[in-house]
Structure formats: structure tokens, C-alpha cells
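C-alpha cells in:
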């Protein structure tokens, strides 16, 4: 990884700690998702197949539905107390929720209390993972400059994908060896506690520290300098001082960022959850076979994230994500035809792999979007948009695909996948135009343009 050679020791340490922490967070978060075929039967009442699908969708969506509220909480913490505080706090929350889930009795033992306990734990995990990934991306965006900034932040997504892959591997082991599933959650809780302690070594980001110093200096100057008070009232001066790092939010940029973020949940749900239902219902796959296939899909996801993240050191990340949008949009048009044509799970694996490899994510262009928000509003707005899109799209996708595909078969995919990919392309094109208007350039983009010429 050539981009690491240009980083300082503290920067490399931060990249390492945040990558490991994100990996462990997403291992804990996705462990339940990929053990859901077993755990939903243990913690929810037994019902018919259709109701079971809805209960599964509910259990999945509970992880994301309250994230917008958590975004305000973590946004306040991140923008007032610091990025480091948020990173440590979220890892601790994930650990505690894993401990509870490893200990809670089943539905057969305590009834509906088990269902609610697990759902609340999933909500806590969703909140902590939201604060985790946003905090890590903002931290590195403020710590490292382009072009190394792009692969460094992009690798956070790679770490989350690797955590998903680890969760699938553990799920495979649990099913194949018929081990006690609670051991997996105890393992997740342990590594989350270790991650919490490791992250206390992080330092606060320079952008946040510098802005805090400017605010403090301005407040001290107002208190001492009589000339300022003669020109402005003390109230107005104080307001101006506190406005440091709190510039105006560009609403169009926020909408474009929102639309960009809406696409990935559709890609993820289709590849891992919807296709798992096809494997089970159409091809007769068992739960261990589904987990095994999804494990190989997760390997493809990791390879894709790693490839595009490292590529962003040489090619502008906006060009990369626009290319992915242009690849997947026409693919979603022919996807129903392909699903009707295939008669074996191996062909479905090809479809899953294609969608997940070119998945429509903001990575590795995330630093570009983060920098559009003022420092003291950055965490709040970025986190809220991230949380809102996850809550909205996972609910829409999970419940929507259940009903759309029941009514229209595979053609029902058009109702979710096409609009999300088209909106993604619009958002990317907006930021491409914005970059040109602002005449934003960097040594890396100049280097690439010269090579391309």
C-alpha cells in the first residue's frame, strides 16, 4: 500500500486502530444478520412463511430505524466533545449489547420479552455502528490530506466488509460444527472491549483541535478587548465567535449526498438477504448452504472495496464511483431477465458478486463529501444523513421487496433498484460539477490527468 509511505507514524497508527475497530464493530453488527435464520426461530414466535419474512425484515430493520435519533446524539458528542470520544463510546456500546445478547434466554423460556430484548440490543448495535463508521471516516478525513486521504478513508469500508466476512465465517463454523451460538457473541463482546481500550490511544484530529482553539481565542479576545465591544454589542460578538466552524449548509449538496447514500442499502439487501430468500425458496438451499454462499459473496465485496480504495490514490474517486453507477444501472434493467433464466445457485452467485463488487457506495469519495460541511456541523450532518438513508432505505427495501416481488415476481426489483441507482448517478454528477465550478484540484488529480493524456 504505497499511500502509507507518505504518512507520519501517528497517522499510520490511527489508520490501523480505526481499521481494526471498524472491522470488529461490523463483525458484531453483522453476526446476528447472518445467524438470523437460526436466531429468529429462537427469539421470535413461529409463524407461516410470509409472516416469518416480515418478522425477519422487522428484526433486520430494527438495527437502523432509530439511527437518525442516534445521529443527533453522536453528532452533538462528536461536534462538541470530539471525534475520539465518539469512537471510544460506540465501541463500548457494541460490546455491552453483545454481552446481553449472549446471555438473554430464548422465546421458549421467557416469551415475548426475549423478542424485545434482542430487538433493543439490535437498535443499540445499529446506533453504535453508525457513530463508529462516521466518526472513523471524519477522523481520517481531517487527519490526512489528499491523495493518501482517499484510500485511507476508503479502507474503512473495506474493514466493515471484512468484519461482515468474519461474521459469515463464524456463522458457517457454528452451523457446520453445531457449536453453541452464544460463544460467537461472547467472542464479539471480548474483541469489542479490547478495541475500546486500544482506541484510547488515539489523539484528537487537528481540524477539530484548531477550530476549538480559534473559538477559545476569539472568546478571550472579546472578553479583554474593549475596542471590539465598542463596535459590537457583547451579545453579537459572542454569537460571531461561536459561529467559528459553523458555516452555512448547502442544501443541494446535502440532497445530493443523501441520494448517494441511498443506493448502498439496496445493493446490500439485494445481494445478501433477497438472494438468500431465492436460494432457499427456489433452489432449496439449507441455512448452512446459504451462509456458505454469502461468505464467498463477502469475499468478493472485500476484494471490490480494497481494489477501488487503492485505485483512488491514482484515479479521482468521483470518477470511480460514477463508473460503478454507469455499470450497475443497466445491469439492474436486465437483472429480472437473468433471475428468471437461471436454474442453479451458482449462477445466482455470479449476480450477487457482480452487484456487490460494483456496489454503489460513497467510498472512496467520502472525504470529498465530508469536507462540504463546516467543522462544527460535520459530524451532526454527515451522521444524520447516513443514519436517515440507512433507516429509510433498509425499511423500504426489506419490506418493499417482500411485497413487490410477491406481486410482480422478479420484475418487482425495478421498484427499488433502478430508482436508487439513477438517484446515485445524479448525486455523483452534481459533485463532479461542483468540483469543476470550485476549480478544486490536487496533486493526485493533476498526476492522473497527465497520465491519462
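Residues out:
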Amino acid at each position: 500500500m504505497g499511500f502509507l509511505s507518505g504518512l507520519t507514524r501517528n497517522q499510520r497508527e490511527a489508520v490501523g486502530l480505526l481499521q481494526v475497530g471498524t472491522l470488529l464493530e461490523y463483525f458484531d453488527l453483522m453476526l446476528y444478520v447472518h445467524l438470523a435464520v437460526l436466531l429468529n426461530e429462537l427469539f421470535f414466535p413461529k409463524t407461516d412463511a410470509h409472516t416469518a419474512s416480515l418478522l425477519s425484515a422487522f428484526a433486520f430493520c430494527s438495527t437502523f430505524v432509530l439511527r437518525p435519533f442516534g445521529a443527533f446524539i453522536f453528532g452533538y458528542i462528536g461536534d462538541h466533545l470530539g471525534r475520539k470520544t465518539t469512537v471510544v463510546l460506540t465501541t463500548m456500546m457494541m460490546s455491552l449489547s453483545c454481552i446481553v445478547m449472549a446471555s438473554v434466554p430464548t422465546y421458549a423460556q421467557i416469551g415475548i420479552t426475549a423478542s424485545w430484548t434482542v430487538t433493543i440490543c439490535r437498535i443499540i448495535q445499529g446506533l453504535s455502528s453508525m457513530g463508529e463508521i462516521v466518526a472513523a471516516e471524519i477522523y481520517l478525513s481531517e487527519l490526512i490530506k489528499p491523495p493518501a486521504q482517499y484510500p485511507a478513508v476508503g479502507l474503512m469500508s473495506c474493514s466493515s466488509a471484512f468484519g461482515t466476512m468474519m461474521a459469515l465465517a463464524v456463522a458457517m463454523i457454528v452451523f457446520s460444527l453445531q457449536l453453541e451460538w452464544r460463544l460467537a457473541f461472547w467472542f464479539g463482546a471480548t474483541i469489542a472491549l479490547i478495541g475500546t481500550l486500544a482506541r484510547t490511544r488515539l489523539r484528537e484530529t487537528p481540524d477539530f483541535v484548531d477550530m476549538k482553539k480559534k473559538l477559545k481565542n476569539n472568546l478571550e479576545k472579546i472578553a479583554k478587548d474593549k475596542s471590539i465591544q465598542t463596535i459590537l454589542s457583547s451579545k453579537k460578538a459572542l454569537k460571531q465567535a461561536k459561529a467559528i466552524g459553523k458555516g452555512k449548509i448547502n442544501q443541494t449538496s446535502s440532497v445530493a449526498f443523501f441520494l448517494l447514500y441511498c443506493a448502498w442499502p439496496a445493493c446490500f439487501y439485494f445481494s445478501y438477504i433477497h438472494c438468500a430468500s431465492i436460494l432457499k425458496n427456489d433452489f432449496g438451499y439449507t441455512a448452512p448452504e446459504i451462509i456458505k454462499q454469502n461468505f464467498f459473496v463477502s469475499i468478493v465485496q472485500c476484494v471490490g472495496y480494497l481494489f477501488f480504495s487503492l485505485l483512488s490514490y491514482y484515479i479521482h474517486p468521483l470518477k470511480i464511483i460514477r463508473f460503478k453507477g454507469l455499470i450497475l444501472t443497466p445491469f439492474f434493467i436486465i437483472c429480472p431477465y437473468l433471475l428468471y433464466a437461471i436454474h442453479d445457485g451458482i449462477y445466482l452467485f455470479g449476480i450477487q458478486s457482480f452487484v456487490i463488487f460494483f456496489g454503489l457506495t460513497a467510498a472512496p469519495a467520502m472525504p470529498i463529501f465530508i469536507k462540504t460541511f463546516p467543522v462544527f456541523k460535520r459530524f451532526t450532518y454527515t451522521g444524520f444523513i447516513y443514519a436517515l438513508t440507512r433507516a429509510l432505505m433498509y425499511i423500504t427495501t426489506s419490506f418493499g421487496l417482500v411485497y413487490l416481488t410477491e406481486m410482480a415476481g422478479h420484475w418487482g426489483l425495478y421498484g427499488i433498484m433502478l430508482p436508487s441507482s439513477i438517484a446515485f448517478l445524479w448525486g455523483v454528477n452534481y459533485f463532479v460539477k461542483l468540483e469543476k465550478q470550485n476549480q478544486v484540484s490536487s496533486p493526485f488529480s493533476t498526476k492522473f490527468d497527465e497520465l491519462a493524456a
